[in-house]
Amino acid sequence: MSEASTRAVTTFQRPHVHFTPHQYWMNDPNGLIWLEGEYHLFFQHNPHGNEWGHMSWGHAVSRDLLSWTELPVAIWHDDLEGVFSGSVVYDAQNTSGLGSMAQPALIAIYTSALVEEPQLQRQSIAYSTDRGRTWTKYEGNPVLDEGLRDFRDPLVRWDPRQERWVMVLARSSEQRIGIYSSADLLTWRHESDFGPAGAIDGAWECPDLFELPLVDDPSKTRWILIVSLNPGGPHGGSGTQYFIGDFDGQRFVPDSFDAQWADFGTENYAGVTFNDEPEGRRILIGWMNTWQSARRPVVTPWNGMMTLPRELHLARDSRGLRLSMTPVAEVEARRGEAIMPDVLNSDGGFSWQVAHAAYDLKLDLAVNEQTELCVEVEGEDQVSVRYCVRSGRMHVSRAGSGIVPEEFEVFLTEEPSDSRSIRVIFDHGSIEWFVDSKAVTIGIPTALERLTITGSSVVGIGAAHLYPLS
Predict the structure, then answer these.
(1) SS3 letters for 420-447?
(2) Does residue 131 lie in a domain region?
(3) Which of 28, 208, 360, 427 is flagged as catalytic?
(4) Do 174 and 267 fall within a single domain?
(5) Rounded mean pLDDT of 291-296?
(6) CATH number at residue 97
(7) Which of 148, 382, 424, 462 sits at 20 to 30 Å (Cα–Cα) from 62?
């Protein structure tokens, strides 16, 4: 790693609007669920140090998805098992018998990664009857064991149509997703497998399966299967692909076996969505990192951060249905007073230089052959993002950062348009860029010391707002 990169890591500041643990290593989000006014975020965590190991479940809660209170470690590793990724459900009908009708249990379904040879991976459960504050491992574990080594990351939801639980989990080295059902969370039946399909140049991990209404016709719905991939992403590292199709409670049948990418950047992995979100929103959080860069040295008390929570939609463009993402509406409550005029006529171009901690940028740009937007983030390392609105081409450079890849290009436009809607969230350690609700997540190696935005357009800009975020 370069000297410049080492300096950047040394002076790295804690993000303002992204979750980071108080200290030590963090990776995949786990067990996302809402209960009694609280959003619960569990996460893969090493309670003993800044490197991967001793996998346990960290735990944090929030009432607005942005301000998090970290709680004690929820589920600990022990001499027999590491506690790998999984999910949490609210057993309202006490199907498991581990709670009661008066006091239903939260049930965590996680992968037991056996410490000793042959290092098998099995599915186990733990339960809590005090709103997730304390957890007990089920004495009858494991609840699902097929004698496999790459058999992990169970995601469980209640299927009201068939009145039973449904699980999707990864047979990682086979590039398959197994689908299972259960009446009580304790005994599981294999229903079917999906895959290989789409991108298969790495291990499949952290699946999620859910139903979404169409934006242009909410009376119709489709099912989305999310599958993370490591490596084999759009830029060679980790990535997250998805499939759109039908699910009848037993089998998932995709409309196409080709991969679509949920994020066109390089630092959004293992994302899953919340159970029981009270407003019916489908909200995703991902780990803002990639395994190709995650193990680089850091000297901050913590190692790892999450993406902003994002609301998912099923939109349509000229190529058909696609998954779109927008930052959750709660971000707007963190805005300060806008520091841009409402309307700018920029025939001669525009340029702003601002210095703050975090920003929310919203631009509506007219499209012509000259339209271009350039963003430079300055710290002890300089990061530049240049986006040509007409072509949809984005070039990202963070040379010397130690983050892989240091340079990459993204093409975000599949169809012509005379305007583009752009939303960019800047924070210490990250840029999250949304072009017409297509996401590009970019990790940066430095605290945000200065943000420079320049652009040119012979037609002009519509609305333009830059909000400081508290």
Answers:
(1) EEEEEEEECCEEEEEECCEEEEEECCCC
(2) yes
(3) 28
(4) yes
(5) 84
(6) 2.115.10.20
(7) 424
Q: pLDDT tens for residues 380-420?
A: 667 888 888 777 888 998 877 778 898 999 988 766 677 78
Active site residue 153: no
Segments forming the whole domain that contains residue 61: 19-307
CATH number for the domain spanning 341: value is 2.60.120.560
**pLDDT reported for residue 383:** 84
What's residue 458's pLDDT? Answer: 47
User: Looking at the 3D structure of the chain, how many domains does it have?
Assistant: 2
**Residue 268 belongs to a domain:** yes
Is the entire prediction scored with pTM above 0.90? yes
Same domain, 364 and 291: no
Indicate if 382 and 276 belong to the same structural domain. no
* Residue at 374 is within a domain: yes
